[in-house]
Specification:
single chain; alpha/beta; two-stranded antiparallel ribbon; 51% helix; 10% strand; globular; AB_hydrolase_1
C-alpha cells in the first residue's frame, strides 16, 4: 500500500475502528509518522493527539483480538510459556500424553491384576521349535524340568531392557520366559492410588494395597507364576528388581526354583551372621550348669544381682514401651508428611525437571561405553514418558519405596539373606557406576552357596551390554544348579 493510500485509509477511521484495524498498516503508519510525515487529525487539535490516540489503541487492539482484556491476555501468555517449558521432557513431547495401550508393541500383552492393567511379554520356547532341530532337542529335554523364567526390571526400566535376552533365555531353559512392567514403569497403567485410598479410608475394613509398593509387585510376580502353570520358576531380578525377586522368595519359597540377581540393588550387611554348629548344645548345657551353681541359696551377691536385674528389666521394658509408642507415632507422621510432599505440585515439577536433565544421562552412564547407547536404546527407555500420569506415578513409587523401608514388619531384608536356601547367581559388571561391585561380592558371601560372576568391561546392564556373556553365565549356572536332568539340553545349545 502506497503512502497516499495509507494516509487516506487512516483518515477514514473513527476511534472505535482502531480496535479492528490492520496491524501491518499500523506499523507502516508508525514508521511514516516517525520519519516526520504529518497527518491531519480528525481526533484532536494536532498530530500529537492523533499519535497518542494511536499508541493507546494499538495495545487495546492486541488484547481484544486475543482474549478481550489485558488480564486474559496475560494469563494466556503465561499459559503459553508454561506449555512451552513442559513441551518436551528428555526429548519426549509432553503436549499430548497417551494411554499405554496405544503405545504397545505387536507382541505386547495386557492383563488386569487388582485394578491395574499390567503390560507384559512372553516368549515360548515351544513356539520357536521350528527354527532348528537343536531348538527342538532343547525343548524336549527341558520340558520335564519345567523351569520357566520371570524377569523383573530395575528402576526406570521396563520390559524393553530384556528384549535382547528373552529369546536366548527361552532356548536355554526350554520353557517360557515372561517379563512384565511393574507399576509406575513401562506401559503398565498408572493408577491414582491417592484418590482411591482416600475414598476407601472411610471404610475401616477396606485397606487397598498400594500398587506402587513392593508387596504389590511380589503378588503380581506370584500371579504370573500361576499364569505360567508352573510349580516353580526361576526369578531374574535386575537392580531394584532384585528386591522384588528376593521378597517373592521369602513370600513363597516353595514357588522359586532359583534366583538370578543382576547388579542387585540390595545393601549387603557388613558382617555375616555366625551360625554355631557342633558344640552349640554342649555350650548351652555348660552355661546352664554355671548358672545353677551361681544361683545357689548360699550366695547373697547373686541374689542381690537377681533382684536388681528384675527391677532393671521392669524399668527397661517400660521405657522401651514408651519409645516404641513414640516411634510408631513418629513413623506415622513421617509417612503422612512424606506422602503430602511427594504428591504436591512442586514435587511433580521437580520430578519432571530431574528426568529432563538427568534421564538420558543416567541411561548412558549405565553402560561401560556410553557411545554404544544408540537412539533405539534411548527411545526404548524414554517411550514410557508418553504415557498419561507418568510423573505422578513415579512419585507414588518413590513414596511407597521409602515407606516400605520405614515399616518392615518381618525385619530388614539384609538380616534374612542368610535364610535363602535355593540356588542363587549374582551377576555384576566390573565397572558398574550405580551399584558398586564390592557390594555384590559381599552379597554373594552372605547368601549361602551363591555363585558370583563378574563380567569385564561391563556396566550396570550386563544383559543389555554383554548379552552373549550374560547368557553363557546363566547357562553355566543352570547346569550346575539342576544337574544332569538339564545338562543334556543345555549342551545342545553350545
Amino acid at each position: 500500500m502506497e503512502t497516499t493510500e495509507i494516509f487516506q485509509h487512516f483518515l477514514s477511521l473513527s476511534p472505535a475502528d482502531f480496535s479492528h484495524c490492520n496491524f501491518k498498516n499500523l506499523n507502516k503508519f508508525s514508521k511514516l509518522q516517525g520519519n516526520g510525515i504529518s497527518f491531519p487529525s480528525r481526533f484532536g487539535p494536532d498530530t500529537k493527539g492523533h499519535a497518542s490516540l494511536l499508541s493507546s489503541q494499538i495495545p487495546f487492539a492486541s488484547a481484544s483480538s486475543i482474549g478481550g482484556s489485558n488480564a486474559d491476555y496475560s494469563d494466556q501468555l503465561l499459559d503459553a510459556q508454561k506449555k512451552q517449558k513442559r513441551k518436551r521432557i528428555a526429548g519426549i513431547d509432553q503436549e499430548e500424553l497417551l494411554d499405554p495401550t496405544v503405545l504397545a508393541d505387536p507382541d505386547s500383552c495386557f492383563c488386569e491384576f487388582r485394578g491395574v492393567q499390567i503390560h507384559h511379554k512372553v516368549v515360548d520356547a515351544e513356539l520357536q521349535a521350528h527354527e532348528s532341530f537343536q531348538t527342538k532337542a532343547i525343548s524336549h529335554q527341558t520340558k520335564k524340568v519345567g523351569l520357566p523364567m520371570i524377569l523383573l526390571h530395575g528402576f526406570g526400566a521396563s520390559v524393553f531392557s530384556w528384549n535382547r535376552v528373552m529369546k536366548p533365555l527361552a532356548k536355554v531353559t526350554g520353557s517360557k520366559v515372561l517379563a512384565f512392567d511393574r507399576p509406575a514403569f513401562g506401559l503398565t497403567s498408572r493408577v491414582n492410588f491417592w484418590g482411591h485410598s482416600a475414598s476407601a479410608s472411610g471404610n475401616a475394613d477396606s485397606k487397598p494395597l498400594n500398587p506402587y509398593s513392593t508387596a504389590f509387585s511380589v503378588l503380581a510376580t506370584l500371579y504370573f507364576i500361576d499364569s505360567l502353570a508352573a510349580e516353580k520358576t526361576i526369578l531374574v531380578g535386575h537392580s531394584a528388581g532384585s528386591l522384588v525377586a528376593v521378597n517373592t522368595y521369602f513370600e513363597a519359597p516353595e514357588r522359586v526354583a532359583a534366583l538370578i540377581l543382576v547388579a542387585p540393588a540390595i545393601f549387603a550387611p557388613l558382617t555375616s551372621p555366625k551360625v554355631v554348629k557342633g558344640n552349640q548344645m554342649g555350650g548351652e548345657r555348660q552355661l546352664e550348669e554355671e548358672n545353677s551353681r551361681a544361683n545357689s541359696p548360699g550366695n547373697p551377691f547373686i541374689q542381690l544381682y537377681n533382684v536388681l536385674s528384675k527391677f532393671t528389666k521392669i524399668i527397661f521394658d517400660a521405657i522401651m514401651g514408651i519409645v516404641e509408642g513414640m516411634s510408631n507415632m513418629i513413623n506415622s507422621l513421617y509417612k503422612k508428611l512424606l506422602s503430602s510432599i511427594l504428591r504436591s505440585a512442586f514435587a511433580v515439577m521437580l520430578a519432571r525437571m530431574v528426568i529432563d536433565k538427568f534421564g538420558i544421562l543416567a541411561v548412558r552412564n549405565s553402560w561401560y561405553d556410553p557411545n554404544q547407547v544408540t537412539e533405539h536404546i534411548l527411545h526404548g527407555y524414554t517411550k514410557p514418558l508418553k504415557t498419561k500420569g507418568w510423573d505422578r506415578a513415579l512419585l507414588e513409587y518413590t513414596a511407597a519405596l521409602l515407606t516400605d523401608m520405614a515399616s518392615e514388619t518381618k525385619g530388614p531384608l539384609t538380616k534374612r539373606l542368610h535364610e535363602i536356601s535355593c540356588p542363587v547367581l549374582v551377576v555384576m559388571g566390573d565397572t558398574d557406576r550405580l551399584v558398586p561391585s564390592w557390594n555384590a561380592e559381599r552379597l554373594s558371601r552372605v547368601i549361602p552357596g551363591s555363585c558370583l560372576e563378574v563380567i569385564k568391561n561391563c556396566g550396570h546392564l550386563p544383559h543389555e551390554e554383554k548379552t552373549d556373556e550374560f547368557i553363557s553365565v546363566v547357562q553355566k549356572f543352570l547346569q550346575g544348579a539342576f544337574g544332569d536332568s538339564e545338562e543334556q539340553g543345555l549342551h545342545v545349545v553350545a
